[in-house]
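re: the backbone from monday

yeah here it is again, tokenized this time
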């Protein structure tokens, strides 16, 4: 989804955590009544949600005898394709810049997924365990760490522009024994519920 144009410069008040920058508009309204881009403002972020979504699972895994290594094929749980989007991007500021500003606000260790990226289901995705002393029931899963946030952008005397960002912080996979407690994350819980024996510790915790 593409951003919407900003409005003419008028006074406005924003309540929230404000990431400030140099303020000012690059010009005044022209003869046609349209405002010039105002590109050095600040963002107030709200409604930030960080969620984990299950994207793939292995078949149930059972080691009858001790095993030192294993490779689990992860099958997509659906056909959903994830794409970052920004609605309401201020005039003169692209979606990539808005996502970058959100990453700074979140103090993200890695850049958030940009407008040109996408995450598609992979049929040949594997999780490999090269070392260990494996025995019993295990489960493996893949996940994506989604981020959604609302923003209000102000620049000089420009009227505030509101919008929303949808992107992700990264993807990953996990491999755990059914005999242990669940790790954090919705993906692990859903995978344990589906793949572990009903009387196992992980399956009981997932209910």
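seq for it, each position gets an aa:
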């Amino acid at each position: 989804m593409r951003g919407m144009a900003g409005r003419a410069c008028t006074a406005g008040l924003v309540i929230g955590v404000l990431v400030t920058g140099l303020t000012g508009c690059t010009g005044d309204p022209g003869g046609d009544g349209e405002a010039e881009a105002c590109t050095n403002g600040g963002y107030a972020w709200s409604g930030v949600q960080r969620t984990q979504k299950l994207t793939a699972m292995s078949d149930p895994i059972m080691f009858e005898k001790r095993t030192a290594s294993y490779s689990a094929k992860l099958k997509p749980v659906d056909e959903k394709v994830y794409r970052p989007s920004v609605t309401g991007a201020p005039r003169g500021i692209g979606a990539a810049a808005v996502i970058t500003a959100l990453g700074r606000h979140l103090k993200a260790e890695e850049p958030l997924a940009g407008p040109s990226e996408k995450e598609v289901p992979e049929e040949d995705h594997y999780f490999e365990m090269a070392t260990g002393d494996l025995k019993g029931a295990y489960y493996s899963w893949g996940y994506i760490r989604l981020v959604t946030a609302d923003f209000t952008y102000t620049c000089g005397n420009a009227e505030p522009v509101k919008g929303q960002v949808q992107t992700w912080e990264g993807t990953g996979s996990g491999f755990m024994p059914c005999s242990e407690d669940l790790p954090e994350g919705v993906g692990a819980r859903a995978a344990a519920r589906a793949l572990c024996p009903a009387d196992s510790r992980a399956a009981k915790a997932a209910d």
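The chain is about 15% helix and 40% strand. The first strand starts at residue 17 and ends at 19.
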